[in-house]
Amino acid sequence: EAAPEAAPEAAPAAPEAITLKVWGPAEDQADENSFLPVACAKFAEAHPEYDITWVFEVCAEGDAGTMVTKDPTVAGDVYMFANDQLGTLLQANAIARLGGAALEQVKADNSETMVASVTSGEGVYGVPFTGNTWFMYYDKSVYTEEDIKSLDAMMAKAPVAFPVTNTWYMPAFFFANGGTMFGDGTDGTAGITFGGEAGAAATTYVANALAAGTMIDDAGGAGMDALRNGKVSALFSGTWDAKNVADALGDNYAAAQLPCITIDGAEKQMYSFSGSKAFAANPNSANLKAATALAAWLGSAEMQELHFDLRNGEVIPCATALLANEKFAANPAAVAQNDTIANTSKLQPSIPEMGNYWGNAESLGKALANGEVNADNAAELTETWNTGLNGGL
Length: 393
What we know:
With 393 residues, this protein is α/β, with parallel strands linked by helices.
């Protein structure tokens, strides 16, 4: 019998020609050796089924809510966003709900806080690549491990710098004294409760510290200048300032989660906003499957480590498996950021009602920084401010 003829081998499928537009901050695409071009080239190598034309355009994470929603149909197929903009992006149908392997990766790689930061209702909408919060840098030749648990103990030894006029930072004092924002952060009808006697006491605490000179307003780089000059021995910022602080303090460089403050004789824990920065896929993408795979790739643990390396340690990973790695365990800013997210932070609300907070919140910080607030008028000014935060209701 004649041997059966071998079936002809199927010709390999030609790669699918697609274009992927990626939006991210300028720092991640400054040249061909920057994070986005390098990481996307690695994605292309791992996905020979695609013949990808790359388009990189600048959109910082904090601007995604504004830029992507202008016209989601022409925005990046993949973009980076700060999680507080999730509500705005959802309203504009500008962010894709994750499923399948991408969803499994997000849940497997991240802490509950990080997953919650990109969750709305039942859906998960982003691939976190770094935590987003602020914490405390300090001079360890001035403050002991015991001192840094109490801001009052610290200010008794040496002044500190705090961004009083920055609305991302100011809630810390009101959270400490029991204030809330939208209940657990998701109830738009619950409003903001930074007023009343508790709110007035928090305002008075800051006013007194500023008046005594034990706290200075960190605005326009004043805090970093004062740290370099030895006029303050601590400041509050995030990982983006790690190199500057390390350069300023040298061997005395240290960082930690937030301290307590003493109000009416009781120690109260300060809380910063926490959240994440994440990669998102645009549901309007002509290549949504590839865009979702790319978002998951760029936010993977392996790429988080690359991101850290290529940004000189400014972008701290959030993948839990990486945080035990000696590279990060020995990094003061990395440890402080993750301790803060775990212990001394509240998840920043991402509901649309939060939009009313930002513009209205500046007034009290400016009045404090200008020395216009004292124990006599703190209650009235705080109440007026809190009314404004709630849309005048």
